[in-house]
Amino acid sequence: MKNFAIAIHGGAGTILRSLMTPEKEAQYTNALQNAIDAGYTILDEGGSSLDAVEAAVMSMENFPLFNAGKGAVFTNKGLHEMDAAIMDGKTLEAGAVSGISSVQNPVHLARIIKEKSGHVMLSGGEAAKFAKKMNLPFQPDEYFYTEERFQQWTAVKDSDTYQLDHSDKTEKGEKKFGTVGAVAIDIKGNLAAATSTGGMTNKRYGRVGDSPIIGAGTYANNNTCAISCTGHGEFFIRAVVAYDISCLMEYKGLTLKAACDYVVKDKLVKMGGEGGLIAIDKDGNIELPFNSEGMYRAWKKEGEETVVKIYE
Amino acid sequence: MKNFAIAIHGGAGTILRSLMTPEKEAQYTNALQNAIDAGYTILDEGGSSLDAVEAAVMSMENFPLFNAGKGAVFTNKGLHEMDAAIMDGKTLEAGAVSGISSVQNPVHLARIIKEKSGHVMLSGGEAAKFAKKMNLPFQPDEYFYTEERFQQWTAVKDSDTYQLDHSDKTEKGEKKFGTVGAVAIDIKGNLAAATSTGGMTNKRYGRVGDSPIIGAGTYANNNTCAISCTGHGEFFIRAVVAYDISCLMEYKGLTLKAACDYVVKDKLVKMGGEGGLIAIDKDGNIELPFNSEGMYRAWKKEGEETVVKIYE
Fold this sequence. Notes:
The structure is a homodimer of 312-residue chains.
Chain A: E1 5-14, H1 22-44, H2 49-61, E2 82-88, E3 93-100, H3 106-117, E4 121-123, H4 124-133, H5 141-144, H6 147-156, H7 161-165, E5 175-177, E6 180-185, E7 191-197, E8 218-220, E9 225-231, H8 233-238, H9 241-252, H10 256-271, E10 275-281, E11 286-287, E12 294-301, E13 307-311
Parallel strand pairs in A: 3-4
Antiparallel strand pairs in A: 1-5, 1-6, 1-12, 2-3, 2-7, 6-7, 8-9, 9-10, 10-11, 12-13
Helix pairs in contact in A: 1-2, 2-3, 9-10
């Protein structure tokens, strides 16, 4: 029997202390604690890491301050197009969805895609048809409306500079990659990873980030580790970040910490790729590296207290 | 100065000799030769591997017998939804598109996404809007109509078993993963890879295969190799095939041949993943492994004759 553990993130980026009120910090802290509890309870009862990461991510999808599910950012059209993925480290089976609207919990859809579609990745309105066929819960547009996201979109919606040159000048100082994710190891030593995101505010042209790309934003393999990323997705895709960490462990013999430090704090920095990730290895070691100013994150190992952090 | 070279594939699978007429074999052979010529000419004039793989893949997209561009298979709705990707091994910049309709050359769109969108991956009808804005050539539905593909679709369109259980019983013996792709090294030693596909006949729910997934179906890195895959895409995504070969070279010191053999003929076989790939390394070595009965393929090294093969 292995010691079980879970780690989660609620996004990395420039999280300015000057914009953070004690009330908001408490909200985030509570939300992270709730997500840890949702996953840990499953692990504690002998459940699977796959169920635990799905439950933890669903908890964050249902919380409006994270950019996933209910709190997803607005696209250029004023809609919500979400991406999610889940992977089982025991079987290497995976499910992913991109550009999905109206489905309450994209990570649950990713799980159902893994188990019922015969495919790994579905996308767009056609993926919603599959979700309907599988009787997944849908929500009206109002459910996904949050005042803060609407204001963020209103500030940039008539400009196209953000999408085309990644200028931050429209972002008023705060730059967040508000993806959520979870990684876990269960009592049987099985690893799993899940990620969910609303993507970039004002995104268009059906942009897909790294979250639903197996090997880039999400990966799990019982031989090595489970990884969920958050950051400037284009760089994470080009660097195949999640699988890179797995390969550095499997083929080069690096520890989880050495692999994470090399990829996040050296390779990605040299490319210009801002962000971070959470990682757990087959021995239950946890790493939560990031090269941005902060990352909403929390973890809990068997029998220990939950640790919640936002800044370095 | 490096010796330049190019390799291409037109899909792997169960290519039955009994269904192959001398006329059809000649058509395929000519099409592969034309694609090699399109890429090789560019390399021979000192052009880039990126231009060469794009030209070679566009040549195959324009040829109706390959499942990409003009010859793309029909989806469940009777449409053509194509995927493509391209990657530059020098800069690790990449472009990809999934579920694109009506664009004449999806690989060219992937190239323009890489260079003009600020993103790596766009999808669906929104990606078509980007292509329109970039003034890419579009074609009406008739352009993509081929009698053979229509008949293949007609035979399975009222069944949904194929999509959900990957049963081959509807496929009348011939099972082909008709993706096309190219890899090349240019005179400067820069590597590039490109892949394009129509996906699976009768596909639905916006299924995305491995072709447009950087690291799975397409990858290039000047430090190691360039790879383009063809096969049962779900397995290639789960195994992160293209980047796996790169990592086995970079982190474990394997030769291109050893890495290709291990991934295609051992790991993928154990998972049940049928297909193959083309690969070229930084020293100009070429490998074209497959675990299926055949793979349309060809290659040409500087100053040598073109080699065209279909079966083992």
